[in-house]
Amino acid sequence: MSSQQALVDLSLIPTSKPSLAVRIGHTAFSIMWVFFWLVVLRMLVRAMLGRGAHPTVLLISFVLYAVAWTLVLWHAAYRSTDAPNRDTTSRERPKRLLIVGATGGTGRQLVTQALERGYEVTAFVRDLSRLQIDHPRLRIAQGDVLDYATVETAMRGQEAVVSALGHKRFLYPTRILSGGTRNVLRAMDAEGVARVVCQTSLGIGDSAGRLGLYFTLFTIPVVLPFYFWDKCRQERMIAESNREWVIVRPGMLTNAHKRERLRHGSRVGNLFSTVRIARADVAHFMLDQLESDTYLRSAVGVAW
Q1: What is the CA radius of gyration of the chain?
Q2: What is the pLDDT of residues 218-229, one digit of tens each?
Q3: pLDDT per residue as tens digits for the range 107-116
Q4: What's the CA gap between 195 and 79, in Å, rounded?
Q5: Does domain 1-304 have CATH number 3.40.640.10?
Q6: Which of 129, 218, 278 has the alpha carbon at shortest distance from 286?
Q7: What is the mean pLDDT of residues 167-184?
């Protein structure tokens, strides 16, 4: 029999729902975003027909929107109020590790590198076919991060969690990141798992604007506003938990080879040019945080 074993789904355990105020705020944000782009589209059509505002006015309006959106992301996500703990003394390394988002680019790197380091790894996946790794110290837990029952089942017996949760549903509001993280934190609390290392992104919280002008003025406000909004909620949820947490904010992710030489800290990033880093290097850094308290309860940027 293969060493990979899928966990059997349990009956759904009811999960806590967002408060009414949170749901109203989320709905209001979505309506405002759609309304803004309807107004922009109308102005653009009128400008093309020679009956509306000058293109320069449209450009200025768009830049103001992008700047306002950056300020929203700065305010909504976690912002460090204290310097990180610079105690670099190594801690006792956990043995059993749950990896959430194990089929993504960073997730597969986490699984591979964790096995190379000697961890007993449980990879939490929705689709078993997307993780083609067979190893005697690897177990596959099949489930949905939004289904608390499967998350709690996978959490049993673990000593730490590393999350590279992500998705590609960019164009409409979702709660996959924040809702999934809520379930992970709840299961950690129930099973007594202390440490979680979670990947988010530069460009939110006190790293707002540090993915460069292309992301600040176009990619985030136009293509990924809902995705980054949910990342903000995800970070806040982690920071308000009672777990031992580290938030890792990488620059633009690439599939390049691991360099093992990177910059890390609260001031990583660039206001003008896009900073990059390989997924392999992000995974390497995240696993290092399981054995160090250097960035305990803080958000750290990483890039080449």
Answers
A1: 20
A2: 999 988 999 999
A3: 999 999 999 9
A4: 20
A5: no
A6: 278
A7: 91
DSSP reduced 3-state for 254? strand
Per-residue burial over 28-57, b if 16 or more Cβ lie within 10 Å, else e, is: ebeeebeebeeeeeebeeebeeeeeeeeee
Strand partners, 177: none
Please give the structure tokens belonging to residue 182.
């809520």
What is the spatial distance between Cα 200 and Cα 204, in angstroms, rounded to a whole number?
9
**What does pTM read for this prediction?**
0.83
> Average pLDDT of 18-26?
59
d(CA 34, CA 36): 5
Question: Comparing C-alpha atoms, which of 164, 150, 155 is closest to residue 114?
Answer: 164
% residues pLDDT > 70 (the chain): 82
Residues in the chain: 304
As a whole number of Å, the end-to-end CA separation of the chain is: 42
What is the pLDDT at residue 162?
98
